[in-house]
Amino acid sequence: MHRVTREFALWCTIAALAGGLRLIRLDFLLTNAEAAAALNALAALRGEPVIFSNPLFGWLQMLLFAVFGANEVSARLAGALSGVALCLLPAALRWQLGRTRALIFGLLLALSPTLWFVSREMGGAMLAWTLAGAAHCAWRVGQPAWAAAALGALLATGSDAIAPLVVASLGALASPAQGGVRFSARAAAIALATFVLSATALLMRPSGLGDAFNGYATWARALWADESASVGRLVLGLVTGEPVGWLGAAFALVMLVIRRDRLRAEAAWPAWGAAGLAVLVITAGRDAALLTPTVIGMLGLASHAYDALWSSVRRRAVWQREGAVAALACVLLIYAGLGVWQYAGQGRSTWLVAILIAALLILALIAAGGLSADYGAPLRGIGLAGAAVLSLYSFGVGVQMNHVRPHNPAEPYRTQAAAPGLGALQESVRLMSTRATGEPRALAIHIADGAPPALHWALRDQRSFGRGEDAGRPDAVLTPAPERPRLAGNFIGMDYQVTAQASLDEVRCVSLPQGGFDCLPLVRWLAFRDVAEARADVWVFWLRDDVARRAGGYR
User: Which positions ≥6 away from 328 have C-beta within 8 Å?
Assistant: First the structure.
């Protein structure tokens, strides 16, 4: 029997953490983008002809629907598991990075709010980026066969494959493979075979090859498509949600400038970050998934800085001394953060005083260390405190965005959310159907043209009533407000908010006529993710009067 090492136990802990954060409560309402992909997979499972923009992900969704049924959890499961796998990829690089640094890298990936969000709500894209990361890691450790297999599977993700392929290729150029191995004819054959098998669902769906190539063309056309999210909004989310990453990356870049001999070994992570930003800028159909390579590159660099900090602490620290400084600095930093939360909603500037006091006291700690000509002890303690508090902050941002308020359209990465009213509509339809017919899915519902995919998905189990049917009048009609049913009969209606959008244009400081600036909208958004205005798409559920009477107990 093999003894379980401490390193293996820590990797298991990271896997459990990443899995828990990404797999718990996946049953919230699907967004329009998620619902469109899920409806496509459901139609393919029913034998209808469809075109997948991401054939590998579509096949996995079909498989999960066949096993677990068509629901929100099975629609998101492949993406969430891909996100967990991404967090474990640094284990393959532990001999290049060092075992401690690889663990830090994996932990940072697991706690990243951006990757957390993309795993749960943009599954096809996360699958593609995980395959690109796997190909990069296999290439760096000198395993071209495994790199080719990951590359072939990546090509089978269609429209989601191009950006990861470009970024991973640039990363490979920046960091040559271990041992100088090259991409051989054997590796090319493995990549081709994996591509064919992945795209065609193990040869069961030959049209998947055409879907993949069509997906490449779709991505090219998206370069000139209308923007779905601005660069500023996505970068705002990156800055406010990932401080533990970009601050660590900044320190790592300073360290690399001082020690230029490490530049070659660390070149892959700046390459991923820079290439990711370039793709983000040139692509018009933007979403949070395009931040994935930037976050991976940033956290790869940050792991270098935090590994150096941990190594310094282990070699030189006196735990009573550095521990006391770290505890005091943690209290001060939390005090400053609570000042923002306490006064932001009241429109008072007292929160600035809290931050100023905390900063002055931290500087006093450093100066106190200087009295003994030892700046290392307070700097190490403050570094540990900063890393701990920033990690706690990022964890809180991720929980808020992904679990507490998954329908909040004011989150920087969520350009459109499924409103809670959609769930209320779903329950109302089931209740009315049960009362009127005795079955929860027996109402014949006509849905007006232009309905969002999220609405179609929410009512996927109900009987549909098309315009060309001769089965009589529909039991219920769904129309966008303020439109009324154009069918014969009397209907009783109730409106529901189906989707919601929020602009972040007002999240800034504005000048006042009497002088000065009003920063309340910005501070309220930073503290609570609240905005003054949000727009909702309202749809009306019209129930035919005789059906409504039966549902009310009148026969």
Answer: 365, 381, 385
